[in-house]
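User: Can you write out an input/output pair for a complex, sequences first and structure second?

Assistant: Here is one pair. Inputs:
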Amino acid sequence: MGLLTSSISITRYKVNGELQTPIKESIYNGLRKNLIQDIDKQPIDRVIGWTSFENPYIPDFQEESLFFGSHIIFSLRIDKKTLPTKLIKKFVAIETAKLLKQSGREFLSTNEKKTIREEVIDRLNQGIPATPNIYDVIWNYEEKTLWFLSNLKAANEELETLFLKSFDLTILRLFPYTGAYFMKTLSDSEKDLLTNVASTQFSE
Amino acid sequence: MIDMAAAYNRYKFLGYEFLTWIWYTLEHEPEKLTDADHNEIDLKIGNRLVLENRTNNNIESITIKGDDPGLEEGLLALKKGAFVTEMELFLQEGDFQWQFSIKGESLNMSGIKTPATGPIEQKDDIEGAVLEKIFLLEKPVSLLDTLYEKFIKAKISPGWNQDTAHKIKKWITP
């Protein structure tokens, strides 16, 4: 539960659009549709999905663990298997030697080498568990704001993609331009001024 | 509304100028820094300030850190044309303190430390702790919005060059 840790990072978003009613059902459906899948004992090396905030390792979306006051809280989980290069190299060498011995040849074709490498990686991936990375999402549906508790570029990009896929809503990251553009108090003429604003050189 | 990726790069300078403006305002016009309810705030620069100077395709990065660091070197870097890329801030309200960093180019917040929430001793305590934590996090987030709005309004005002920018320039190069 990143939200309850002592040091937090926040990337802020504006949520565009509205969910189909009943809203709670749309949220449950969106989350369940892209629930994190278990890839242990499988050749897949990476998976991304939603998980529950309170139970990120055994995802189960219950109303009391999803809706907190006016906030909807869940987590993005990215599970990844990382194989040490030296381990791949070792097993590729072993498999290459085996094939050379069986075939009586001195060299393997590029395609054969590629196949061996892919098979080795798939086999090794089946033997190691994926490491989970969990990032909390705090969505204030009424305010159309969303906090993602990570500043990592890759994790933010995954969030933007999965959110759109799950809820059919786009989220816009708030950075210096968008943070100003979406200010409630900025008039249209001020938005024009903002778009044309130039940097100031403070030093002589 | 222009393309997002292009806007990110094109307007990074707004974030850098915003952090420089916070620094100047904290030192010379602290009464201007108020929260959303127009109350004066007890805000100060924390233990880390990062500046960057880009000249002739070279990037020089200057990090000032430590407890209550002297910022003279930072001011000197500003004089040489550097801009503030990251700033840690301490916000005090009564006995409570918030600590957080703002990155200029993205306005991302990191290292946010809030006053402690109540202990979680059983499952039923989670909801209370979560709501309390969100409430505590809204403090620095809302402050950032309020300050950024003040800065943007000043930046796009006709008086920016003659007033605010002029004062900041005078502060950097007296």
